[in-house]
Structures are given as structure tokens and as C-alpha cells.
């Protein structure tokens, strides 16, 4: 018997593309990452140069090919969701890549969300009506850049553009399409009403294909750029969120994947698409019989970074450990201090660009330890609200698997388990989305029987169980945390109205990822 087959999972992320080679036993063999900037030319805008991203993709693949020195059975792709690029008839970009973090379409999203058809649109397409999504962005282009909107021959996402250049195919997968707000998730077809609202036609969008769709090979130019044979198959792949579940082995119903990086997310795999009655969750495809239901939050590790800059600047940059030591000095519940961590507005479960951060309950007795701990607790309480929405969509939750930079902190691990009231299991370091992409590629190429093997390939390194007393404290505080959002919405709206007449607010400490 020869060596096991190798598939390269290519994860096109918000700040870098990472190519990682795995064999069919789940072993990581080689890895390379290339970064690129996220530009903010105006407040609330977050865009990238698609040419730089394409160069990073081929460069990362070429580096892995050079490192491996063995045949590669195929490439399979993961991507950050919600990106939007306008192309001319020759496939050249007329716009930058407008990322999920871009909030220029806030007014359009709020108007669509408040319309009588807003919730129905969400439940039909699986995508919340929020400025992150391509649908409100398309409305923004129609209203603010009508001449450009008319010139665009095709509207695509970043992975669609990469695949067009690699293989000359204009396709998008059901997973990425389910995060556009333009596809009916129940019919797996472009949604006529959504297209009408966006002011575009079906002919301006890529062909819809399953995530396991295989493109037969590379163009001669792409083969040279990647160092691969021209007949190397390309598996179209999926969005990074659903693939992160797969990469964590969270493939069975009831197993929730939770991640806290700069932002955060919570997703559970289900067998049929559904959205809760209040529209608190998204529903994105992985395969025809595997979907993820959940929610993303804008404010994860960015909150700790803000605390470093605003509350303890004398500690210098990258002082996470000292900050966490400070937080550990405060009691569970931060002495009744609650922080709404909406520094970069918020997504799930309210899906509004209105909210801002707030400390509530501040007294003379609170010090820096309380302020920092309340920030960490606020992030975890927000994830607890997302978990409630996941359950409200009719999903059983029996296990949490967590990943992300926060997992390096024992304190943050424990706060998360206590806030969720469930044991949290931490897998040994797999490259989440790129491993998920590789596994999906292996199934598509017939190298493994099913993506179900993911559950067996992912080894659990540690399980953190909730402390009963701490969990009870957080459970008692969660309704207050939830009520504060509703109570402050009028204040958030007033602040937005006043904003043009106030001195400009400072820029964010960093763009969200």
C-alpha cells in the first residue's frame, strides 16, 4: 500500500489565506499562510483588493506543494462568507471585495428588516437582513452608485472570483449562496423576490452548485502559479462557518461548535434548513443534508484588546495575560457590573448595526479587575443569548466544542462553560475551516466514505465543566443582560441621530476579523 491520499484545504479568510495539506487519516502534513490588508477608506467600510487575495491563494498553495514533494489528490476551498465583488463582462473587478465587516449598508438593512417582508426574507434565505450580507449591499450600490451598479455584469463572492481565475468556471456553492440573502434555502435556487429587491437578475449571479461539486482542472496559467498539474481537481467547497463545524468534528445534531477569535460564533449542525420564529439565527448549508444553524457575534477577542488599550495602556500591547490576571481578581458576576460588549455594533441574535457598548451597574467599589472581567463575561453572555436562539429554532444542545484564541486562557474557558451552563470540550489543534474543507474535498473525490469520519478524527484535549455556583450566578444575570439591549435601543438610536453634530468618534482599535 502506498501513502494515504493528500488533499489541500484552502481557507480564504478575512486577513489571510491559509493552505493546509491533510492526508485521509486527518494528519496535517504542510501549511502556509499569506496575509493581506483590510482597508477602511471611510468609517464603516471594510474592503480588500481581490487581486491581492488571489495572489495569496496561489502563493500559499505553491508553498505547500513545494514543502510536500508528493502528489496532491485535489484542492478544496473554504471562504469567509458574505463578500461581494462586481465584475465586468471579462471578469475584471469593478469594485473591491466588500467584506462581511463592511457596514455601509446599515440604513438599507434596517429599512429592509423593518419592512413587512423582512422576517419572511430572512426565513426563506437563511440570512439575517443585516449590513454584513450581500443583499443590503446590493441595494446600497443601486441607490448610492447606480451607474456602477448598471455596469456590473456579474456579482460574485471572493471564492467565486478565485475559482473563475483558477478554472474558468463561474460557479458558487450552496453554502456561500445561503449566506448572501439571495438564495431560497428550501429550494436551493436564487430567490426571485430577493433579486427584485437587489435590482439584479439571475443571469448576473454565478451558477449554483453543491459544495462537493468538482471542477476538473486548472488553467495552464493557474497550474504554473500553483506548481500543480493542470488536471488537479478542484472541489468548490463551502463557507468557513459550516466547515469550522466539520473541522471540529461537530457534525452530529446536538453538537455545537463555538469559537471566539477576534469575533465569535456558535453553530449547530442540523439535517434540514430552519430559522427560529423570531429570526435570531442564520441557517447556512454545508451539504444537501447538513446545515448549520447559529449566530455570529462581532465582539470577541476585540473586547479584550479594547480593554488593554482603554483600561490598561501602561501594560503595553499584547498584554492579554496580565489583563486576564487582573480579571481573575474580580468575583464571578463582577460585583453586579454588566458590560454590553457591542464595541463594533452586533450581529446575533438581534442583527442590528445600532447598538453600542455600555457598562451598567458601575459603583465606587468597582475597579479595573471588575471592568475587565465584566468585558469577558459580556462576550460569554452574548454567546449564551445566541445559544438560546439556537434552542428556540428547535435544536437540542448536548455538547459544546470550542476553539479560537480565547482557549489559551483557563479563566476565559471557565467563564464560557459557566455562562453556557454546559461542559465545553476543547479539541486538539486542528486547522478548523481548512481541515473541514479538506474533509469535504476527500468525500467529493471519493477518498473517504463520508464527512461523518470527522467526529472520529478530532481528538478532545480537555473538557471544562461549569461550576454550579458560578453557572447559577450567570443564569440569574442573563435575563438582565438581555433586557438591557431592549431598554437601550432608543438611546442607541438617539446617539446615531446625534452623531453628525458631535465631534467624530475615534476609529476602532482594529478592524473585525
Automatic annotation (TrEMBL):
Pfam families per record: FGGY_C, FGGY_N
| Transmembrane stretches, start-end | none
Q: Which keywords accompany this UniProt record?
A: Kinase, Transferase
Q: Which InterPro entries match?
A: ATPase_NBD, Carb_kinase_FGGY, Carb_kinase_FGGY_CS, FGGY_C, FGGY_Carb_Kinase, FGGY_N
Q: Which domain of life is it from?
A: Bacteria
Q: EC class of this enzyme?
A: transferase
Domain Carbohydrate kinase FGGY C-terminal, chain residue ranges per copy: 257-444
Q: Which residues form the Carbohydrate kinase FGGY N-terminal domain?
A: 7-247
Keyword presence, Kinase: yes
Any one GO molecular-function label of the UniProt entry: gluconokinase activity
UniProt EC number? 2.7.1.12
Q: Which residues form a coiled coil?
A: none
PANTHER family, alphabetized = GLUCONOKINASE, SUGAR KINASE
Q: Which family does it belong to?
A: Belongs to the FGGY kinase family.
According to UniProt, the name of this protein is Gluconokinase
Name its species.
Micromonospora maritima
Amino acid at each position: 500500500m502506498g501513502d494515504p491520499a493528500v488533499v489541500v484545504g484552502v481557507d480564504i479568510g478575512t486577513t489571510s489565506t491559509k493552505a493546509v495539506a491533510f492526508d485521509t487519516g486527518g494528519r496535517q502534513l504542510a501549511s502556509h499562510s499569506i496575509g493581506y490588508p483590510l482597508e477602511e477608506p471611510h468609517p464603516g467600510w471594510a474592503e480588500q483588493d481581490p487581486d491581492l487575495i488571489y495572489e495569496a491563494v496561489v502563493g500559499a498553495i505553491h508553498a505547500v506543494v513545494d514543502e510536500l514533494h508528493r502528489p496532491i489528490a485535489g484542492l478544496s476551498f473554504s471562504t469567509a462568507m458574505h463578500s461581494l465583488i462586481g465584475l465586468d463582462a471579462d471578469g475584471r473587478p469593478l469594485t473591491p471585495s466588500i467584506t462581511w465587516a463592511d457596514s455601509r449598508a446599515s440604513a438599507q438593512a434596517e429599512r429592509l428588516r423593518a419592512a413587512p417582508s423582512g422576517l419572511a426574507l430572512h426565513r426563506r434565505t437563511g440570512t439575517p437582513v443585516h449590513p454584513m450580507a450581500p443583499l443590503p449591499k446590493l441595494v446600497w450600490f443601486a441607490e448610492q452608485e447606480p451607474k456602477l451598479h448598471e455596469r456590473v455584469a456579474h456579482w460574485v463572492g471572493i471564492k467565486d472570483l478565485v475559482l473563475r481565475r483558477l478554472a474558468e468556471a463561474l460557479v458558487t456553492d450552496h453554502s456561500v449562496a445561503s449566506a448572501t440573502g439571495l438564495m431560497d434555502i428550501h429550494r436551493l435556487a436564487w430567490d426571485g423576490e430577493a433579486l427584485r429587491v437587489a435590482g439584479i437578475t439571475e443571469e448576473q449571479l454565478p451558477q449554483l452548485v453543491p459544495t462537493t461539486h468538482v471542477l476538473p482542472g486548472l488553467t495552464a496559467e493557474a497550474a504554473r502559479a500553483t506548481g500543480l498539474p493542470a488536471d488537479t481537481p478542484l472541489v468548490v467547497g463551502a463557507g468557513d462557518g459550516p466547515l469550522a463545524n466539520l473541522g471540529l468534528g461537530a457534525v452530529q445534531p446536538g453538537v455545537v461548535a463555538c469559537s471566539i477569535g477576534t469575533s465569535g460564533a456558535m453553530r449547530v449542525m442540523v439535517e434540514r434548513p430552519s430559522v427560529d420564529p423570531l429570526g435570531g439565527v442564520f441557517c447556512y448549508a454545508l451539504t444537501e443534508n447538513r446545515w448549520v444553524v447559529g449566530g455570529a457575534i462581532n465582539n470577541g477577542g476585540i473586547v479584550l484588546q479594547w480593554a488593554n488599550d482603554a483600561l490598561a495602556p501602561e501594560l503595553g500591547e499584547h498584554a492579554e495575560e496580565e489583563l486576564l490576571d487582573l480579571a481573575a481578581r474580580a468575583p464571578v458576576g463582577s460585583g453586579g457590573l454588566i458590560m454590553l460588549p457591542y464595541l463594533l455594533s452586533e450581529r446575533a441574535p438581534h442583527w442590528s448595526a445600532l447598538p453600542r457598548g455600555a457598562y451598567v451597574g458601575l459603583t465606587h467599589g468597582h475597579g479595573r479587575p471588575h471592568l475587565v472581567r465584566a468585558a469577558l463575561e459580556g462576550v460569554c453572555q452574548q454567546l449564551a443569548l445566541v445559544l438560546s436562539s439556537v434552542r428556540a429554532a428547535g435544536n437540542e444542545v448536548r455538547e459544546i466544542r470550542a476553539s479560537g484564541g480565547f482557549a489559551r486562557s483557563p479563566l476565559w474557558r471557565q467563564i464560557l462553560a459557566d455562562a453556557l451552563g454546559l461542559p465545553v470540550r476543547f479539541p486538539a489543534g486542528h486547522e478548523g475551516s481548512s481541515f473541514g474543507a479538506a474533509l469535504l474535498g476527500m468525500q467529493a473525490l471519493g477518498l473517504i466514505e463520508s464527512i461523518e469520519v470527522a467526529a472520529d478524527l478530532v481528538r478532545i484535549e480537555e473538557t471544562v465543566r461549569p461550576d454550579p455556583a458560578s453557572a447559577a450566578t450567570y443564569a440569574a444575570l442573563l435575563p438582565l443582560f438581555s433586557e438591557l439591549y431592549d431598554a437601550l435601543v432608543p438611546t442607541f438610536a438617539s446617539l446615531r441621530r446625534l452623531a453628525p453634530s458631535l465631534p467624530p468618534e475615534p476609529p476602532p482599535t482594529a478592524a473585525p476579523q
